[in-house]
Amino acid sequence: MSVAGMSVAGMPGVSGSRAPAAGSGMSAPRPMRDPQLAAILGNGCASATVRSDVLPPNILFVIDRSGSMTCNPPPLTESTACEGAPSRADASRASKWEITRDALTAAIGKLPAAARVAISYFSNDDMCGVSSIPAVPLAELDSTQRSALESSLKEVQPAGGTPLVGATILAYKYLHTLALQNTLLGNDFVVLLTDGAQSEQCGDAARCTTAAECTTLLTDEEVPRAASPGSDIRTFVIGAPGSEPARVSLSKIALKGGTAPEGCDPERGDCHFDMTRETDFSASLSSALAQIAGQAVTCELPLPAAKEKDFDPKLVNVIFSSGDSTTARLVPEDDRTGCDTAQGWQYNEDVTRIRLCGSVCTDVRTDPKARVDVILGCPVVAPQ
Fold first, then answer.
1. Contact call for residues 95 and 72 (beta carbons, < 8 A)
2. Which residues are CB-contacts of 152 (< 8 A; sequence separation ≥ 6)?
3. Are the beta carbons of 134 and 170 closer than 8 angstroms?
């Protein structure tokens, strides 16, 4: 399925439909033979159809390359020993950085071409340096961007402190700036990976001095601001071995960043991907990145009509057409459970997007010629 945005097209037999978007080249939806759909259209209630394309993800990886990433993960090197002497105990075994590099390379390789990906590191000067521009700026995952990301990861040599707070704040600023420039389409994510807490020596004299003050600034102000309506930047957090002291604060970032599992508690430290409790860092990190990709590459559709004064969320229906089909079928609204178990579609929290759930999401992801149309004006249909 393409991700070029959306256009409006008239439906056969529907009066008062909006005109197609100029230059869109949009054809009318395929013939509607679904009985429920035919019944809806027979009522003459539809005022327009909106052809919507799935929103692509914009993912900024913010990755810790501090000196402690040179250590072997436990049990070869326990985290406390690594903090005291950050070096690899067994040169024949992979370091935390090498495991992270390989897992990230593999995960990025599996993301769809429509995704836009960037990567930033902290520190970037072997001390406390952070940058407002990622090491690899955000771009669609064509062959050039994939090569740039892979090369960047290969060139990294861990060193320096852990300016986690500054790196994360600048990541939000970068995505927000692109949004203000109207150069972003889709859903925005920061993926923060660290093997430790904010370094004491890496404060910001203008805003915070101690590591605790800086961490509170991030968890209580910056993360909620980034996740708020209008910014909508969600933050995934991965705590690599060594991040045990930061477990609570990392879970707070994930919770306030809008990616924590339901029922988690930051005081238990179970709101983020905590690798410190796993026995195989490599396998658990690959699993975490796969889960993040699954949540980031969502089946969400824009719904600009929600901004119109006469828009009624109770008068919306969704049509799905597979690429090899000459017919279309009605997708019911199903908000009885979360989208991970529902079969149909749901609104997001502020009713500005439609989420496709269950098998229809799978169909959209696997069929590049699939088509989704949204009918405006007819009473919503729930599961039978």
1. yes
2. 119, 135, 136
3. no
| C-alpha distances in Å from residue 382, one per residue of 239, 334, 339, 360, 364 | 40, 6, 15, 15, 20
Rg over CA atoms, the chain:
23
What type of residue sits at position 154? Answer: K
Mean pLDDT by 10 residues, the chain (384 residues): 32 28 37 61 73 85 98 95 93 97 96 92 96 96 96 97 97 95 88 97 90 97 94 96 97 97 96 96 97 87 71 88 77 90 90 89 79 86 73
The CATH number of the structural domain formed by 57-296 is 3.40.50.410
Q: Which of 57, 30, 180 is nearest to 116 (CA)?
A: 57
From residue 143, give the alpha-carbon distance in Å to each of 113, 147, 152, 323: 9, 6, 14, 26
- Asked whether 282 and 99 are in contact (CB, 8 A), the reply is yes
Tokens of 167: 């790196």
Give me the residues paired with residue 118 across strands.
60
CB neighbour list of residue 292: distance below 8 Å, 6 or more residues apart: 107, 189, 191, 236, 273
CA distances from 80 to 85, 210, 238, 242 (A): 9, 21, 19, 7
Which residues, in sequence order, are bridge partners of residue 120? 62
From the list 225, 233, 221, 203, the residue with the least C-alpha distance to 130 is 203
The phi, psi pair for 349, rounded to 5°, reads -60, -40
Tokens of 194: 């660290």
Residues 190-214 have pLDDT tens digits of 999 999 999 999 988 889 989 999 9
HSE at residue 338, side-chain half, CA atoms within 13 A, is 4
Per domain, the residue ranges of the chain are 6-20+28-55+299-376, 57-296
The rounded distance, in Å, linking the Cα atoms of 344 and 230 is 27
Q: For 87-141, write each residue's pLDDT tens digit.
A: 999 999 999 999 999 999 999 999 988 899 999 999 999 999 999 999 999 999 9
Residue 185: which H helix or E strand, with range? none
